[in-house]
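USER:
I would value a second opinion on how I read folds in token form. Give me a protein, with the fold worked out from its sequence. Write it directly below this note and I will take it from there.

ASSISTANT:
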Amino acid sequence: VHNMEEQARSFGTLIAYGEINRIEFSEDGNIKKIFVDNDPVPYQCLSIIVAAGEEQRKLGVPGELEFTGKGVSYCATCDGAFFRDLTVAVVGGGDVALGDALFLTRFAQKVYIIHRRDRFRGTKIIQEKVFSNTRIEVIFDSVVDEIFGQTLVEGVKLRNLKTGEIKDLQVNGVFVFIGYLPNLGFLGNILKKSDDDYIIVDREMNTSREGIFACGDCCKKNLKQVVTACGDGATAAFSAQHYVERIKGEEYV
């Protein structure tokens, strides 16, 4: 990241840190005003590229926030080694959840996979590996209602969605992989978004608002990979350049 920042600065890029509160527009819509933190003076520009990415969806249950970093994790490759010879629960049913559950068997003596449905969404080959792994036990039709413990995670409270039965499951760690949410709260309703709150763009990364472009995982798309995000970014930059040139009357035809 440092190298990328230095390269950007070498081309005259101003890098500012802060949290965007809102975006406003001039009467003709050409000038975009970006308000950051509590500063009353906005950054002004002709074009914006939104590359806000997404964050992992949280369970939203008691104990999750309190035990984050104390047994609750959202990254198996980051924290898996801390649970050597212990018991962990993985919450989710997609490829990420199943793949990370398999990864965790390198360290944990027991891995529970807790999924709210009666079957997984993950690809068949990964499912076969999960079901054949003797360290993994699958719990279908169940959700986590609470994460409990003293100073560290000691267990989860499970609720069976079909029977209503509630039981405690003793685990030392909880890994949550239930999808992602885009980081777009600062946009409000200025752009058209999908039902699941991702920005809708066309092939040129245009959004519903002229002069605002978007790229990467905050956009509604089928494939989310580093390589596709980089391609999106290049396209968005190209489109933004042409938009600014047109506004300034400098467009090459």
